Amino acid sequence: MKWPFSHPSAAVPVVELTPEPLEPQKALELVRNPGHGGLVLFLGTVRGSSRGRKVLHLEYEAYSPMAEERLRGIEGEMRRRWGPLEVAILHRLGRVEVGEIGVAIAVSAPHRRQAFAACRFAIDQLKKSVPLWKKEVFPDGWEWARG
Question: Which has more pLDDT, 10 or 114?
């Protein structure tokens, strides 16, 4: 089967912070590589409840220069650990409604084991070390999310 699209430049990571809605197909297109047999896509969506409270929407903020630098560092560590990969890490900024995608991480690798491991590493490290903040908005107010 011939893919209708291909990665524009092999081994070039894509890191994007954007107020625009995230499209899973775009993330997949960015990492397609005919030499890779494993392709993993993680989508983090906004839940309608948090800690027993109804969530109306989220608001994401970031210190963009540092966040992008940290995301590129995560991508570099992924390559050191799992070898040749294609990586796209896309994160929303601003208001994100319940059900919408807040983060999309796509990874392709020669084999599925590498792709799964690298993708999980990316989201775990993003949550731990990237300066992104999530405000949860409830019917009776708002709070900055913990962690």
Answer: 114
Counting Cβ atoms within 10 Å, is residue 147 exposed (0-12), middle (13-18) or buried (19+)? exposed
Would the pTM count as exceeding 0.85?
A: yes
Q: Nearest-CA neighbor of 77 among 8, 126, 113?
A: 126
Separation between Cα atoms, residue 116 and residue 122, nearest integer Å:
10
Q: Which residue has the tokens 């896309």?
A: 90
Which class would CATH give 14-139?
Answer: alpha beta
What residues does each domain of the chain span?
14-139
Higher pLDDT, 10 or 79: 79
Backbone φ and ψ of 25, nearest 5°: -60, -35
What's the pLDDT at 100?
98
- Provide the token pair at 19: 């107020």
Strands 57-62 and 94-97: antiparallel
User: What is the strand order of the sheet 94-97 is part of?
Assistant: 94-97, 57-62, 132-138, 141-144
117 and 48 in contact (C-beta within 8 Å)? Answer: no
